[in-house]
Amino acid sequence: MDGAELKAWRRAERQRLLALRTRAPAAERRLWNQKIEARLRSLLDKRTDFILGVYWPFQAEFDPRRLIDWLVATGSAVALPAVVDKKGPLEYRAWRPGEALVDGVWNIPIPEARKVVVPQAVLAPLVGFDRQCYRLGYGGGYFDRTLAALSPRPLAIGVGFELSQIETIYPQPFDIPMAVIVTESCIRRRRAELADL
Questions:
Q1: Gap between the Cα atoms of 76 and 108, Å rounded
Q2: Predicted TM-score (pTM) of this structure
Protein backbone atom coordinates (compact mmCIF):
# COMPACT_ATOMS: atom_id res chain seq x y z
CA MET A 1 0.00 0.00 0.00
CA ASP A 2 1.59 3.31 -1.04
CA GLY A 3 1.40 6.54 0.95
CA ALA A 4 -1.72 7.89 -0.78
CA GLU A 5 -3.53 4.55 -0.49
CA LEU A 6 -2.63 4.27 3.19
CA LYS A 7 -3.84 7.81 3.87
CA ALA A 8 -7.17 7.06 2.15
CA TRP A 9 -7.50 3.73 3.97
CA ARG A 10 -6.83 5.33 7.36
CA ARG A 11 -9.33 8.11 6.65
CA ALA A 12 -12.04 5.56 5.72
CA GLU A 13 -11.21 3.31 8.70
CA ARG A 14 -11.30 6.30 11.05
CA GLN A 15 -14.78 7.26 9.79
CA ARG A 16 -16.02 3.67 10.10
CA LEU A 17 -14.72 3.29 13.67
CA LEU A 18 -16.02 6.69 14.79
CA ALA A 19 -19.46 5.78 13.42
CA LEU A 20 -19.38 2.45 15.32
CA ARG A 21 -18.43 4.22 18.54
CA THR A 22 -20.94 7.04 18.31
CA ARG A 23 -23.77 4.64 17.37
CA ALA A 24 -23.16 2.42 20.40
CA PRO A 25 -26.02 2.93 22.89
CA ALA A 26 -25.23 5.51 25.59
CA ALA A 27 -26.05 3.02 28.39
CA GLU A 28 -23.56 0.54 26.93
CA ARG A 29 -20.86 3.22 26.63
CA ARG A 30 -21.46 4.19 30.27
CA LEU A 31 -20.86 0.58 31.31
CA TRP A 32 -17.69 0.44 29.17
CA ASN A 33 -16.53 3.69 30.78
CA GLN A 34 -16.97 2.22 34.28
CA LYS A 35 -14.96 -0.89 33.37
CA ILE A 36 -12.17 1.15 31.75
CA GLU A 37 -12.02 3.48 34.76
CA ALA A 38 -11.68 0.49 37.11
CA ARG A 39 -8.83 -0.94 35.01
CA LEU A 40 -7.05 2.43 34.89
CA ARG A 41 -7.39 2.82 38.66
CA SER A 42 -5.79 -0.62 39.12
CA LEU A 43 -2.87 0.48 36.90
CA LEU A 44 -2.39 3.81 38.64
CA ASP A 45 -3.34 3.16 42.27
CA LYS A 46 0.21 2.52 43.54
CA ARG A 47 1.60 5.74 42.07
CA THR A 48 2.03 8.82 44.20
CA ASP A 49 3.30 12.29 43.41
CA PHE A 50 2.55 11.56 39.79
CA ILE A 51 1.45 13.69 36.82
CA LEU A 52 -0.86 11.99 34.34
CA GLY A 53 -1.57 13.62 31.00
CA VAL A 54 -5.30 13.22 30.43
CA TYR A 55 -7.71 14.59 27.82
CA TRP A 56 -11.15 16.15 27.63
CA PRO A 57 -13.68 13.68 26.13
CA PHE A 58 -14.63 14.21 22.49
CA GLN A 59 -16.88 12.30 20.07
CA ALA A 60 -18.08 9.58 22.50
CA GLU A 61 -14.57 8.69 23.76
CA PHE A 62 -13.91 7.19 27.17
CA ASP A 63 -14.66 10.02 29.60
CA PRO A 64 -11.75 10.34 32.09
CA ARG A 65 -13.31 13.06 34.29
CA ARG A 66 -14.22 10.71 37.19
CA LEU A 67 -10.70 9.27 36.98
CA ILE A 68 -9.31 12.83 37.13
CA ASP A 69 -11.30 13.51 40.30
CA TRP A 70 -9.99 10.28 41.87
CA LEU A 71 -6.37 11.01 40.91
CA VAL A 72 -6.48 14.53 42.36
CA ALA A 73 -8.18 13.24 45.54
CA THR A 74 -5.41 10.65 46.00
CA GLY A 75 -2.59 13.17 45.65
CA SER A 76 -1.64 12.85 41.99
CA ALA A 77 -1.81 15.65 39.45
CA VAL A 78 -3.23 15.86 35.97
CA ALA A 79 -2.45 17.89 32.88
CA LEU A 80 -4.57 18.59 29.82
CA PRO A 81 -3.10 18.85 26.32
CA ALA A 82 -3.22 22.07 24.33
CA VAL A 83 -2.47 22.59 20.66
CA VAL A 84 -0.01 25.47 20.37
CA ASP A 85 1.28 24.67 16.87
CA LYS A 86 -0.80 22.65 14.41
CA LYS A 87 2.36 20.99 13.07
CA GLY A 88 4.07 20.56 16.44
CA PRO A 89 3.66 18.51 19.62
CA LEU A 90 0.97 19.11 22.22
CA GLU A 91 1.75 21.14 25.31
CA TYR A 92 0.57 19.64 28.60
CA ARG A 93 -0.78 22.19 31.10
CA ALA A 94 -1.28 21.38 34.77
CA TRP A 95 -4.96 21.57 35.71
CA ARG A 96 -7.24 20.82 38.67
CA PRO A 97 -11.03 20.48 38.53
CA GLY A 98 -12.54 23.91 39.09
CA GLU A 99 -9.73 25.85 37.42
CA ALA A 100 -10.65 27.93 34.38
CA LEU A 101 -10.85 26.31 30.97
CA VAL A 102 -11.07 27.99 27.56
CA ASP A 103 -11.94 26.59 24.14
CA GLY A 104 -9.00 25.17 22.22
CA VAL A 105 -8.82 23.54 18.79
CA TRP A 106 -12.14 21.89 17.80
CA ASN A 107 -13.66 23.68 20.84
CA ILE A 108 -12.04 21.13 23.17
CA PRO A 109 -11.46 22.79 26.59
CA ILE A 110 -7.88 23.54 27.60
CA PRO A 111 -6.54 25.12 30.81
CA GLU A 112 -6.54 28.90 30.66
CA ALA A 113 -3.40 29.07 32.84
CA ARG A 114 -0.31 28.03 30.93
CA LYS A 115 1.50 25.94 33.59
CA VAL A 116 3.48 23.63 31.29
CA VAL A 117 4.53 20.23 32.70
CA VAL A 118 5.95 16.95 31.41
CA PRO A 119 3.70 14.10 32.58
CA GLN A 120 5.16 10.72 33.53
CA ALA A 121 2.36 9.00 31.60
CA VAL A 122 -0.34 10.10 29.17
CA LEU A 123 -3.74 8.75 28.27
CA ALA A 124 -4.14 8.72 24.49
CA PRO A 125 -7.70 8.27 23.17
CA LEU A 126 -8.03 5.56 20.54
CA VAL A 127 -10.14 5.81 17.41
CA GLY A 128 -8.69 2.40 16.58
CA PHE A 129 -5.85 0.12 17.68
CA ASP A 130 -4.17 -3.04 16.50
CA ARG A 131 -2.68 -6.19 18.02
CA GLN A 132 0.79 -4.61 18.24
CA CYS A 133 -0.62 -1.70 20.34
CA TYR A 134 -0.36 0.86 17.56
CA ARG A 135 -2.93 3.63 17.77
CA LEU A 136 -5.15 5.05 15.04
CA GLY A 137 -6.01 8.58 16.13
CA TYR A 138 -7.88 11.43 14.48
CA GLY A 139 -5.21 11.95 11.83
CA GLY A 140 -3.50 15.10 13.08
CA GLY A 141 -0.39 13.28 14.35
CA TYR A 142 -0.42 15.23 17.62
CA PHE A 143 0.17 12.32 20.00
CA ASP A 144 2.96 10.78 17.92
CA ARG A 145 4.75 14.15 17.65
CA THR A 146 4.24 14.75 21.38
CA LEU A 147 5.58 11.35 22.45
CA ALA A 148 8.57 11.80 20.13
CA ALA A 149 9.31 15.30 21.49
CA LEU A 150 8.87 14.91 25.26
CA SER A 151 11.91 14.03 27.34
CA PRO A 152 11.78 11.83 29.20
CA ARG A 153 9.17 10.15 27.04
CA PRO A 154 5.96 9.54 29.02
CA LEU A 155 4.47 6.09 29.27
CA ALA A 156 1.76 5.96 26.59
CA ILE A 157 -1.54 4.43 27.74
CA GLY A 158 -4.04 4.03 24.91
CA VAL A 159 -7.67 4.13 26.02
CA GLY A 160 -10.62 3.01 23.93
CA PHE A 161 -13.37 0.53 23.37
CA GLU A 162 -12.92 -3.07 22.26
CA LEU A 163 -15.02 -2.48 19.13
CA SER A 164 -12.15 -0.25 17.90
CA GLN A 165 -9.67 -3.11 17.53
CA ILE A 166 -8.51 -3.81 13.97
CA GLU A 167 -5.95 -6.26 12.58
CA THR A 168 -3.35 -3.58 11.79
CA ILE A 169 -3.07 0.16 11.29
CA TYR A 170 -0.16 -0.50 8.88
CA PRO A 171 2.27 1.35 11.17
CA GLN A 172 4.67 3.84 9.60
CA PRO A 173 8.05 5.00 10.94
CA PHE A 174 6.39 8.01 12.66
CA ASP A 175 3.77 5.88 14.48
CA ILE A 176 4.68 5.31 18.13
CA PRO A 177 3.08 2.26 19.78
CA MET A 178 1.26 2.50 23.07
CA ALA A 179 3.01 0.75 25.99
CA VAL A 180 -0.40 -0.27 27.33
CA ILE A 181 -3.91 -0.31 25.87
CA VAL A 182 -6.90 -0.34 28.20
CA THR A 183 -10.40 -1.27 27.03
CA GLU A 184 -13.51 -2.39 28.84
CA SER A 185 -12.42 -6.01 28.25
CA CYS A 186 -8.75 -6.10 29.17
CA ILE A 187 -5.38 -4.47 29.60
CA ARG A 188 -2.91 -5.17 26.78
CA ARG A 189 0.79 -4.64 27.43
CA ARG A 190 3.15 -4.28 24.49
CA ARG A 191 6.13 -5.66 26.39
CA ALA A 192 6.32 -8.28 29.11
CA GLU A 193 8.45 -5.99 31.31
CA LEU A 194 5.39 -3.77 31.74
CA ALA A 195 3.55 -6.53 33.58
CA ASP A 196 3.95 -4.71 36.90
CA LEU A 197 2.30 -1.57 35.54
A1: 23
A2: 0.93
